[in-house]
Write a structure and sequence with these properties.
The complex is a heterodimer of chains A (about 120) and B (about 120). Chain A has about 120 residues and is mostly beta strands. In chain A, strands 2, 4, 5, 6, 9, 10 and 11 form a seven-stranded mixed β-sheet that branches. Chain A has a four-stranded antiparallel β-sheet with strand order 1-3-8-7, with no helix packed on it. Chain B has about 120 residues and is an all-beta fold. In chain B, strands 2, 5, 6, 10, 11 and 12 form a six-stranded mixed β-sheet that branches. In chain B, strands 3-9-8-7 form a four-stranded antiparallel β-sheet, with no helix packed on it. Chain B has a two-stranded antiparallel ribbon with strand order 1-4. Chain B is globular and about 45 Å long. The chains are: A mainly beta (about 120), B mainly beta (about 120). Chains A and B meet through strand 5, strand 9 and strand 10 of A and strand 5, strand 6 and strand 10 of B.
Chain lengths: ~120, ~120
């Protein structure tokens, strides 16, 4: 299984709502990533988890709260978002950090988030 | 800090023809990896091809090949026998080989490829 899955595919939320994005992989990867991608732009790294511990936070506002409950699952909890947070949120995984070889990232299909 | 530049925002190619997408990067490191990712309108980012900086031989994957010029810091992607399914946004990406860099990818701004009949 070489797939990263993300749910939901689409999400519309108000600025006062609390919602969560979910990402799952069963490739035995121990590094997982959250990216934000605006239209016609490259993905921007938000968070990196390594062995279920937060390794990198790219100065992301606290209204985004990541969680890695186990090695296969990565969540992104959303609260009090702004309309400018509307974007495609991509999850990715790779074997592990600091690896000597390609260690390429496998991406999920993304969640299209709209904040009203 | 590393930067990746894709100077062609859009390219067009006829079906069955060959097209080359350009990518240049800036780094002071000698050991790194380079990637081309494809993102079709369906949104899923797919790895197309990868290259290790210490390898002189250019990577090839079926109809996709790269021209890696380390001294010039250039990493172009050639697509041969273009197919309608090749239409997508193509991102060039750089990853340092240094430990402690957390496998962070630096992406270019992308090139949108159209394939016409």
């Amino acid at each position: 299984d070489t797939e990263v899955t993300q749910t939901p595919k689409h999400l519309v939320m108000g600025m006062t709502n609390k919602k969560s994005l979910k990402c799952e992989q069963h490739m035995g990867h121990r590094a997982m990533y959250w990216y934000k991608q605006k239209a016609k732009k490259p993905p921007e790294l938000m968070f990196v988890y390594s062995y279920e511990k937060l390794s990198i936070n790219e100065s992301v506002p606290s209204r985004f709260s990541p969680e890695c409950p186990n090695s296969s699952l990565l969540n992104l909890h959303l609260h009090a978002l702004q309309p400018e947070d509307s974007a495609l949120y991509l999850c990715a995984s790779s074997r592990r950090l600091g690896l000597d070889t390609y260690n390429e990232q496998f991406f999920g299909p993304g969640t299209r988030l709209t904040v009203l | 800090a590393q930067t990746v530049t894709q100077s062609q925002p859009e390219m067009s190619v006829q079906e069955a023809e060959t097209v080359t997408l350009s990518c240049t990067y800036d780094t002071s490191e000698s050991d790194y990896y380079l990637f081309w990712y494809k993102q079709p309108p369906s949104r899923q980012m797919i790895l197309v091809i990868r290259q290790e900086a210490y390898k002189q031989q250019n990577a090839t994957e079926n109809r996709f090949s790269v021209n890696f010029q380390k001294a010039a810091k250039s990493f172009s992607l050639k697509i041969s026998d273009s197919q309608l399914g090749d239409a997508a946004m193509y991102f060039c990406a750089y990853r340092s080989a240094r430990s402690g860099t957390a496998s962070k990818l630096t992406f270019g701004t992308g090139t949108r490829l159209q394939v016409t009949l």
